[in-house]
Amino acid sequence: MSRAGFVPPPYPFDRLVELRDVCTHHDGGIVDCSVGTPCDAPVPEVLDAMAASGTERGYPTSAGSEAYRASACGMLARCYGVDVAAGELAACVGTKEFVASLAGYLALRDPGRDTVLYPAIAYPTYAVSAQLAGLRGVAVPVHDGRLCLEQLDDATVRRALVLWVNSPSNPTGLLDDLGRAAEFGRRNGVVVCSDECYADYTWSAPRATVLQHGADGVLAVHSLSKRSNLAGVRAGFYAGDADLVAYLRLVRQHAGHLVAGPVQAGAAVAWGDDEHVAVQRARYEHRLTMLRGALTEAGYDVPAPEGSFYLWASKRDEDDGWQLAASLARAAGLLVSPGEIYGEDARRFIRVAAVQPDERLALACHRLAEAGQLV
């Protein structure tokens, strides 16, 4: 008897094609706030470093060059007050590939456990990582942005291999208690992996890392995609538990995970500079305020995010985020992400990414106001 093989689920954002077509019919075109793709230019010094690295011909180091790792360690010390040795940090090819591959590598290390825990409302790749590794994925209930770890049954906890936590959250913009997650992991022998790619953009509290609560049994994952508008170059790092980092460095070296040499040179410059991050923070804060005001005026419930550059919106008497997204596409040519992409518990919401230039967001806000006047 033949067995059915793995059938990949549809890629979440490919499902937006029909809404995208609706948006393009507006005079002035689509205002795409569906994906968190930065629109602002990276600092020139980073691009200059990539162009002049002279590293194109040789193979780059898998763990990251000495300069790459030293610069990332310096950023953690300056911005988060944590001292991480270069041997406790290694490069990854952006962080999405790390998220998608981690569970499989951890399962090879600890075959007695088979469960990936992740927030019930979350970035879809956490769940997909379990599928790709042939493991069991369990969504942890979330309340007010915090993982309800106490709701997990003992059998699930005993089987848990890794717990993903994401603060600030994509998509909700809420903050979680990283110390509580780290304590849960140590108490139960579960690796805690903290996805901190939005940590530079916190609005209601200082930026935070799980490493502030100790490195044992935890990994923090950081990326230049959002911090430095470098999503296209694919550069990040993971840091924390020395034994875990050493194991993953070797496994990933065998697997051929290599950040390109020129990218490593540019990343070393980017990790070393905080001024451009402050400039970007101000941009996102302004854009979030602009969009939140327009959506609120149009009748949406739009809490101020605690972090990230996303708005997590809903509307009274509407329980289908796809319908909300369709309404915004028709009224304003504004493309947003329906909440169902991020889990069944998020069906009544939409996520709005403040990632378009000010003038494009202003156009969408103007269209939304005009549509309200016509009702």
Number of domains: 2
- How does the major sheet shape up? 7 strands, mixed
* CATH class identity of the largest domain: Alpha Beta
The averaged pLDDT comes out at: 95
Describe this structure in words.
The chain is α/β, with parallel strands linked by helices and 375 residues long. It has two domains: 12-41 and 276-374, Alpha-Beta Complex (Aspartate Aminotransferase, domain 1); 44-272, Type I PLP-dependent aspartate aminotransferase-like (Major domain) (Aspartate Aminotransferase, domain 2, 3-Layer(aba) Sandwich). Helices cover 40% and strands 15% of the residues. It has helices at residues 17-24, 44-51, 66-80, 96-109, 125-132, 154-159, 178-188, 224-227, 242-255, 261-271, 275-297, 321-332, 358-374, and strands at residues 31-32, 89-92, 115-119, 136-140, 142-143, 146-147, 160-166, 191-195, 218-223, 236-240, 310-313, 334-335, 337-338, 350-353. The strands form four sheets. The protein has a seven-stranded mixed β-sheet, with helices on both faces. Strand 7, helix 7 and strand 8 form a beta-alpha-beta unit. Helix 4 (96-109) crosses helix 5 (125-132). The mean pLDDT is 95.
List the helices and strands and how they pair.
Layout: H1 17-24, E1 31-32, H2 44-51, H3 66-80, E2 89-92, H4 96-109, E3 115-119, H5 125-132, E4 136-140, E5 142-143, E6 146-147, H6 154-159, E7 160-166, H7 178-188, E8 191-195, E9 218-223, H8 224-227, E10 236-240, H9 242-255, H10 261-271, H11 275-297, E11 310-313, H12 321-332, E12 334-335, E13 337-338, E14 350-353, H13 358-374
